[in-house]
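Private note to self, pasted from the team thread so I don't lose it. Backbone tokens:
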């Protein structure tokens, strides 16, 4: 299977064919509609997708750019030489580089045998992972700065994990699941990605990273975990009591780190959960509203429509037509 996948990835793409024939530069229109070079996730992901993989384009230097998503570079074969911020990095086979959406990087032209897999991931994809994280680690710090962009700090995590079989196996499983989707692939990918984060935390000694983490994120990680686990009945006062913090001080810290209030984060979690229940079950809408922690039906309808541009009933009817 691995040999077949490598042969598939070694094939010249249409974009690479044009580069080899007569174009020695990147066609930016493929990647962005903006004048400044910020690669846009909507160029590769449809509205309902949160993650995909794309083979990095070979044979041409890739100019300095940012993304509006989290990118993971994975060297499937060969190597990848790039400048991330002000640091030169030579990524070797089996190694990973996490880049948040606030850091610039530029990439040297890859040779034919250099197969680089780019994971394109919407930041919100990682929401559920906070329930798996320990309170203070490099990944939680990185994800907070990626999910909540008030700091605008450019950060990367460079994992030298080529010898860690459990990580290599998970990455290949994710690639195959995305490239050849089957029944329950989306849920499978989420589970694999969660396991990958756990494995990377366990091997944090093999990671290099930017040093300028803005603040300690213990309170924020614990707050996000609390919302994730107790969204039905969560309250700022209960959370503050659990963390031995004054509620006004905790509220200020949450707003400072995430750019959202506790109430806004809780509402977002409840709406996402409601959408999942509407998609995956046939329980009555009134029961969905109750299960996510609301007792005011008209208020729920209003905020649901404001987020998804349709009422819960219209959302279900649209799914049924599909």
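Design output:
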């Amino acid at each position: 299977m691995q040999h077949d996948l490598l042969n598939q990835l070694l094939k010249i793409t249409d974009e690479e064919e044009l580069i080899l024939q007569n174009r020695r530069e990147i066609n930016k229109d493929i990647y962005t509609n903006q004048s400044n070079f910020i690669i846009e996730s909507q160029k590769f992901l449809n509205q309902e997708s949160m993650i995909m993989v794309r083979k990095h384009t070979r044979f041409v230097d890739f100019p300095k750019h940012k993304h509006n998503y989290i990118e993971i570079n994975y060297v499937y074969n060969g190597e990848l030489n790039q400048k991330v911020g002000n640091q030169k990095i030579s990524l070797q086979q089996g190694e990973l580089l996490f880049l948040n959406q606030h850091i610039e990087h530029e990439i040297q032209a890859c040779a034919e045998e250099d197969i680089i897999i780019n994971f394109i991931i919407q930041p919100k994809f990682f929401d559920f992972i906070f329930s798996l994280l320990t309170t203070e680690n490099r990944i939680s710090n990185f994800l907070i700065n990626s999910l909540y962009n008030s700091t605008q700090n450019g950060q990367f995590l460079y994992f030298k994990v080529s010898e860690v079989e459990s990580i290599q196996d998970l990455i290949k499983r994710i690639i195959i699941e995305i490239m050849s989707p089957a029944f329950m692939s989306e849920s499978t990918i989420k589970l694999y990605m969660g396991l990958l984060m756990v494995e990377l935390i366990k091997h944090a000694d093999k990671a290099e990273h930017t040093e300028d983490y803005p603040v300690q994120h213990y309170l924020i990680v614990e707050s996000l975990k609390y919302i994730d686990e107790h969204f039905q009945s969560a309250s700022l006062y209960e959370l503050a009591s659990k963390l031995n913090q004054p509620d006004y001080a905790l509220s200020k810290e949450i707003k400072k780190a995430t750019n959202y209030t506790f109430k806004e984060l809780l509402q977002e979690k409840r709406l996402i959960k409601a959408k999942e229940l509407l998609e995956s079950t046939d329980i009555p809408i009134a029961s969905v509203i109750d299960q996510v922690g609301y007792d005011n039906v008209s208020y729920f309808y209003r905020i649901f429509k404001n987020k998804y541009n349709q009422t819960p009933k219209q959302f279900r009817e649209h799914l049924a037509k599909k």
